[in-house]
Amino acid sequence: MTTRVAIVGGTGKLGGVIRGVVEAEPGFDVHATLSSRDDIGRIAGADLVVDASTPSVSVDVVRAAIERGINIVVGTSGWSTERIALVRPLVEAAGTGVVFIPNFSLGSVLGTALAAAAAPFFASAEIIEAHRETKVDSPSGTAVRTAELIAAARAAQGPVLAPHVDQRARGQQVASVPVHSLRRPGVIARQEVILSGAGESLSIVHDTVEPAAAYAPGIRLALQHAVGARGVIVGLDSFLDIGIRTPGADA
Q: How far apart, in whole angstroms, are the C-alpha atoms of residue 146 and residue 115?
């Protein structure tokens, strides 16, 4: 049986990568390719929706899929824990599945898991993330997810130390973790988590160099699991046995 996939934001950079994976994946077929401005009603008839739109459009895409009883993979940034909580009752009432993927890169997921695992052992944690200048939102969804998992991993220790956060140059606090966003030409995606303690620091860095190659394995994994998903699933790590349990992976 072929799974018909509607890709919203399929004309963008990430959407193009997703479309290529769907077209090449056995058992999947592109049902419709929509831009972020197209009539969302075109997802009708699909077995699965993949959202690669924009933060301002994404919530409408998710609601439209839930209302039509269609499972959806959300690859759009901007979905914090608080925002996801708002759609959870809708998902449960509809009996559908929504899979939120802050980053399709397996390396990025591993970097975030390592940062969360190390967080209880360091008093300080800060995130520096960089993307191309065309990325419209900041901080990135990956940085938000990383900060939230660091905070969850430190539940027993409490918030990280973040002095002088009243100063704007200290970045935006996400779950107590200062996040610094760079938007500049010549970069695809980069995240560095700096964990510091007395007399030492640990840096965990992930670079995306070639998006199509980096994202394809994660996209395939998300597609395969999303078809039969029920409820809200957050993070590609929910489908990986990486030996490090990240808090809230299946929240």
A: 8
